[in-house]
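Look at a sample.

——
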Amino acid sequence: VERIVTNKMLSAQADRVMALGEWEERWQEDRTGWHQPQVHKMLENNIEKVLAGRSQVKFFFPLCGKALDMKWLADMGHSIVGVEISEKAIKQFFEENNLSYSEEMVPALPGAKLYKSSARNISLYQCDLYNFSSAIEGQFGGIWDRGSLVAINPRDREKYVALITSLMDKDCRYLLDTLLYNPELYKGPPFFVPDEHVQNLFGKSCDIELLHSIDALTDRQKAWGLDFFIENLHLITPKTN
């Protein structure tokens, strides 16, 4: 019965599509309610679980926006690679954090631009996420997925998971933030991604641990017409067999 309910709920958003241009438009118009003006508490509270004693970890930030989490990790000595479609978001990241940066084309990614911090190990690629691959920057020891899996079009999830798992090195620790609510009341994004769905997407190749489940309902979600809004944090690691 649970599976039937989950499938019914997933189908409520299955055909919802946001074009890349719409995301760029939201940045242009400053309609970026998902951006947090501080380091994300879920990352801060679980950083030890992600680092697992490692230093100088290479982190991947899919759909990075201008997340302050990137500078926070870079200041600890880790290196950051992000992918974002909005040039405005990338430039704001560097400018708002007083970081000087360089701009270059990426021969391996036609149409893409690479923005690199001069003083910190931060490289942000302005391109379509699905054009990115391990051929560009190798694999990663850490991934912070906040507002990425929940933002992509639901029909692209298998493609997304194939990309993300191809970017994970054997010791990778991938922190994934998902959201639970009634998708029949709100069309998204952010989209509804239940735990069983995370299991179906990643379970073949990875171990998944639910670290936290918190009530994240605020006036913002109430304005969407929601009466519950749960944020779940998962730690995903490649199976060792």
User: Anything to note?
Assistant: The CA atoms of residues 213 and 232 lie 4 Å apart. The chain has nine helices and nine strands.
